[in-house]
Amino acid sequence: QLAGRWFLVGMASRCSYLAEHSHRLEATAVTVTVLDGQSLAISTFRKLDGTCWEIKQRYLPAQAHGRFLLKGRGYGSKVDMVVGETDHSSYAILYYQKGQSISVKLYGRTSRVSDTIVDKFEQRIRAVGLSEDVTYYFPTYGFCDSVDEFHILD
What are the Lipocalin/cytosolic fatty-acid binding domain coordinates in residue numbering (predicted)? Predict the structure, then answer.
């Protein structure tokens, strides 16, 4: 049900890179494909220095429904992803945890979502101890229609 195209609307994270480069946020879209009925193949499309990139990741199903695992290279590089809330047709709020660090992302089926959904997102952010000063909203225009470069993260 998560399959299809989504737009990254907002993100809350204590990531220092995000804080330092927040003025350079680019419109970001993802395409989710369900593989073998369980795993998620996620292609992220975004610009970096004017070039459109595709970043491919594969999330494996974890023990519980709505939980997935991205295995990275090296020790301690795995990321747990949990579907916090979604109606499958307009929005999804996802949690990402790597070690002690947690991030919350809001995706929409369109690049803009209703104020009600933004309120839900901001409640979820506060519930995990994040705040507005580490919340970033992404541009609603300038999406990549085609890819100039691609990169596979495994």
Answer: 3-137
Taking 60 as the threshold, does the pLDDT of residue 154 lie above it? no
Q: Return the amino acid letter for 88.
A: H
4-137 classified as CATH 2.40.128.20: yes
Query: Domain limits of the chain?
Result: 4-137
Q: pTM here? A: 0.89
Structure-token match 């519980």, residue found: 64
